[in-house]
């Protein structure tokens, strides 16, 4: 079986749902269920014994060792993390704990387990670490996209903590020979994304007639990767990636933030007209401190070495995403609970 961490979060739950749909192999899902973890994302699997959910913290070495010993995974997909840049600015401590200490403890557990395996299983074992393009820092408009060879220049507590975890993963391969794989993907979007990130925040605010808060001048650029394309890339790296290597995963969709917000408003205007004009909700607010201007990802390596490419364009992916949020408004209401409202106050009140 395979073991995933953070499988009740946005990307993790999409990965688990696809895995169960495409393979007979069981998947053990370790998740602490922070504000970002949501078992509702996996409600389709409630009676499915192929998915084994364990509520646990990756920082807890004893529990991790027991889970590894009991389930004997052939591979680990490590996605558990604190993942939101704005939260890392308001409170970096949890990011250091989960992203750095948690990754370290998980690596230690995996290393001891891996060493105890018979040779055939030891050779086949993989530890796949899911990281981000943000570790490479920021690009100006005319610089070429990040390749796997770019130096790490993280600018936020979030990206610094991810870069630190990447370094640990690298060291565990170099020093101990643990068969690691690391992926650096761009901004994901799609179903089940918590509405603190740009795209789901804009969709849910627009549907409630609330302001659409654009940071600074809205001219920052991100590359957007449809979450199911990301999941197919991870399966591809797990199956064919070379241990010790890192792979960039991009969506070939560089867009200005303002362009994204306009696109969402226009789709909603067409698909869900109301008695106000969605674009009139756009509100410019104070910029994010240390805001990275542009991310862009060069995915030639995964394309040429492993034959992966994204299936969705931004136009098809954003259409499906807006439809999902329109059809799952109860999910949205459920996650916009007390904790969510507290976060909205922390991040947005006083910013306009
Ligand atoms: P998410 O915040 O939606 O989910 C993270 C999950 O990890 C949650 O279910 C949470 O409960 C769990 N978790 C947090 N701390 C834990 C701990 N100590 N022990 C066990 N579980 C814990 O994140 P996501 O957007 O799904 O991102 C998944 C991974 O992909 C992260 O490593 C993130 O850095 C990376 N990534 C995400 C994006 C993106 O656009 N979302 C882009 C690049 C990289
Ligand atoms: P986000 O989804 O938080 O991802 P990241 O910071 O990891 O790229 O933000 C994407 C972009 O959208 C980023 O440039 C910040 C901007 N943004 C806004 O303009 N307003 C918002 O309310 C949010 C959450 C993000």
TrEMBL record:
PANTHER family: DTDP-D-GLUCOSE 4,6-DEHYDRATASE-RELATED
One Pfam family here: GDP_Man_Dehyd
InterPro entries, A to Z: dTDP_Gluc_deHydtase, NAD(P)-bd_dom, NAD(P)-bd_dom_sf
Family per record: Belongs to the NAD(P)-dependent epimerase/dehydratase family. dTDP-glucose dehydratase subfamily.
Domain (NAD(P)-binding): residue spans on this chain: 3-320
BP GO annotations: nucleotide-sugar metabolic process
Keywords attached to this entry: Lyase, NAD
GO terms, molecular function: dTDP-glucose 4,6-dehydratase activity
Stored CDD domains: dTDP_GD_SDR_e
E.C. no: 4.2.1.46
Cofactor(s) required, per the database record: NAD(+)
Record's protein name: dTDP-glucose 4,6-dehydratase
Domain of life: Bacteria
Annotated SUPFAM superfamilies: NAD(P)-binding Rossmann-fold domains
Catalytic activity: dTDP-alpha-D-glucose = dTDP-4-dehydro-6-deoxy-alpha-D-glucose + H2O
Keyword Lyase applies: yes
Organism: Nitrosomonas mobilis
């Amino acid at each position: 079986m395979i073991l995933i961490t953070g499988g009740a979060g946005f990307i993790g739950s999409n990965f688990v749902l696809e895995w169960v749909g495409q393979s007979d192999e069981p998947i053990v899902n370790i998740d602490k269920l922070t504000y970002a973890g949501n078992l509702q994302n996996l409600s389709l699997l409630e009676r499915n014994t192929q998915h084994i959910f364990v509520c646990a913290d990756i920082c807890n070495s004893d529990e991790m060792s027991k889970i590894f010993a009991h389930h004997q995974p052939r591979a680990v997909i490590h996605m558990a993390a604190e993942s939101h840049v704005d939260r890392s600015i308001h409170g970096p401590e949890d990011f250091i704990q989960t992203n750095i200490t948690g990754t370290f403890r998980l690596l230690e557990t995996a290393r001891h387990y891996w060493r105890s395996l018979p040779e055939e299983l030891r050779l086949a074992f993989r530890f796949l670490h899911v990281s981000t393009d943000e570790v490479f820092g920021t690009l100006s408009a005319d610089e070429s996209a990040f390749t796997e060879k770019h130096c790490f220049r993280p600018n936020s507590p979030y990206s610094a903590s991810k870069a630190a975890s990447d370094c640990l993963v690298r060291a565990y391969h170099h020093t101990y020979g643990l068969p690691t794989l690391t992926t650096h993907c761009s901004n994901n979007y799609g179903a089940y994304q918590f509405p603190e990130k740009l795209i789901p925040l804009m969709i849910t605010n627009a549907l409630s007639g609330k302001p659409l808060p654009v940071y600074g001048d809205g001219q920052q650029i991100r590359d957007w990767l449809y979450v199911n394309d990301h999941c197919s890339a991870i399966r591809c790296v797990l199956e064919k990636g070379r241990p010790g290597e890192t792979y960039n995963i991009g969506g070939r969709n560089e867009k200005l933030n303002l362009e994204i917000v306009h696109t969402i408003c226009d789709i909603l205007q067409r698909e869900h007209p109301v008695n106000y004009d969605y674009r009139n909700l756009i509100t410019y607010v104070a910029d994010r401190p240390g805001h990275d201007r542009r991310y862009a990802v060069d995915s030639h390596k995964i394309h040429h070495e492993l034959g992966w490419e994204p299936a969705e364009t931004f136009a098809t992916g954003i259409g499906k995403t807006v439809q999902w949020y329109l059809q799952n408004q109860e999910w949205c209401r459920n996650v916009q609970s007390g904790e969510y409202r507290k976060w909205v106050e922390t991040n947005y009140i006083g910013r306009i």
